[in-house]
Amino acid sequence: MTQTWExxxxxxxxxxxxxxxxxxxxxxxxxxxxxxxxxxxxxxKRPHPVDWEFRWVRWRDLRLPADDAxxxxxxxxxxxxxxxxxxxxxxxxxxxxxxxxxACIAVLDGVPPAExxxxxxxxxRRGAVETPWQRAYVSxxxxxxx
Length: 146
Description:
alpha/beta; 32% helix; five-stranded mixed β-sheet; 4 helices
């Protein structure tokens, strides 16, 4: 079994289940330590290739995902894989889209949708989930928990 992230590492969100997921901004220098095994990239354009498996969700800055069904499937995959793999979620700045995705993943992990933004702001990054429509997206998010 592969090790996941260490609690307390920069950007690592500890979910109520104990699963760990790293959020980050791609514009910042790559953090030290182990590399992800799977990444979920939330960008308006296809990301550059990396040395690990990744999934791209088309998601423009300050907006919502272009395809809700694709986003749900990708968020569920990240949540599932975080049980035994190093999973990272990233956009350019690591705040709006990344925070929104992490809040939705927290909902998949059992955090009530109405509390998920506050949870991510407390445990990941204070400025996470930047826009009113991103907050609304989280508040109505209902994962399938497959």
